[in-house]
UniProtKB/TrEMBL annotation:
Highest rank taxon of the organism: Bacteria
SUPFAM superfamilies, per database record: SpoIIaa-like
Family statement drawn from the similarity comment of this UniProt entry: Belongs to the anti-sigma-factor antagonist family.
Cross-referenced Pfam families: STAS
Record-given protein name: Anti-sigma factor antagonist
Alphabetized NCBIfam families for the sequence: ant_ant_sig
GO molecular function, one term: anti-sigma factor antagonist activity
Domain STAS: 4-114
Transmembrane intervals: none
Amino acid sequence: MNYFYIETSITDRSVVLSLHGELDMETRQHLKKVISDLRQLSEHDLLVLDCKHMCYISCDGINTLLSLASSCQARGVQVILCQLQPKVQDVLELSGSTDKLKIVPTLEDAQQAI
């Protein structure tokens, strides 16, 4: 099994999930479960995915992020990715996903987005 875990922090304005490790076919269910279990998400209008420690993403991981962003937007929650590692940024760009996902350089930029 691939290495992946999530740290959660909640601020006045946002829920921040810090993603660690590899987001792929084996680990995407963990991200989905954390999101579905997050009751505080309905009380906030911003979900920040801090990707500073996410070292890899597969096509399945990208599809999970796109699906997550779409379902959150339908509930009035904006999803922003920040602090992408260069390899992860490259994969998202090559897949054309950067046009569909909001990405900012820093956590501070993400939290100021609303």
